[in-house]
Design brief:
This protein is an alpha/beta fold. It has 2 domains: about 240 residues, no CATH class; about 100 residues, STAS domain (Transcription Regulator spoIIAA, 2-Layer Sandwich), CATH 3.30.750.24. It is about 50% helix and about 20% strand.
Amino acid sequence: MMDEGEQKRDVTRDLYGLLGLPIDAIDFRTLLRAMDVAVEKREPFLISTPNVNFLIKSHENAAFRDSILLSDLSLVDGMPLIWIAKLLCVPIHERVAGSDLFGRLKSRTEKKLRVFLFGGTGDLVARVGEKLNADRCGLECVGSLNPGFGSVEELSSPENIALINASGADLLAVFLSAEKAQSWLLRNHRSLTVPIRAQFGATINFEAGTIRRAPPFLRSTGFEWLWRIKEEPYLWRRYWVDGRALLQVLCTCVLPLAITARLSRRQAEFGISELPDDDGMTLNLAGAAIADRANSLALFVGQAMMENKSIKLNLANVDYIDGRFFGALIGIRKQLARQGLSLTMTDVSPRLRRIFRLNRFEFLLSNR
């Protein structure tokens, strides 16, 4: 069963749905404060940092997508996603890259976090750990491990988990490929005792100095990928594949959504009523399900969870759903699943089903 802290956290998140991904509208200051609270309470706190590669992989790999959906915070790491968010009126204005987060944690003087470094190649994590401790910065390395190139199952050995837990770390920084890192974190979510977990990708290379990071002006203008190809020529193939896929998403989803959003009657009166249901809780929604109405579901969700009931949403009279309301649906689905309950949606009109599809949230309509 989900603990009270996890439930409250999901209810109060300023969460948006963006092309099938959960995205938190959060800045660095709020992020660091949330991390400090998680450390104090020793609560599991999974952070994901989606970029274009995450977006494309989430459309191809349901398990990878689910690992991001189950995150406690999901932060935009990539200027193209910022631009798409602005086009779709999703209020994400600040890029929160994993490398920037690592740097902010290092530079803090009022707080120090104990970190365990996991992954990388060769002796990179050991070298970076020694450097962190020599610099006496905001991160104290209390352990490091390069587990090699085995499968997720092999990397999840009891010995590896025991070593990480015994370190007493506050932050577990994972340096594996995106899919492997997310899969490993999800697999070991309940076995790990380190409260904050996050995948930092190429950060280990930047910290070790084996690869130079792009200058700030390239990062802010969305051309960091050009620098990355210069530093790591083999990445051209990934950027080519992701770029083509992103262009398709822009043409088939983003532009139609932007037009639909501006043509929709988004101020239609919204209402929620509970319908008789002996097996669970059935809610009838009507009108435009938009940002300022997303929190109206919270009271019903809390009641359903107290009574251990699954929730069924009748959407026959809903004519529009925006990104904030999709975020609410993601959060509700996560809350219920942690308690072994489900969220299902019925009587979805063809027009509304199209909105789900364009937003890449058609998986929410499945009953699995």
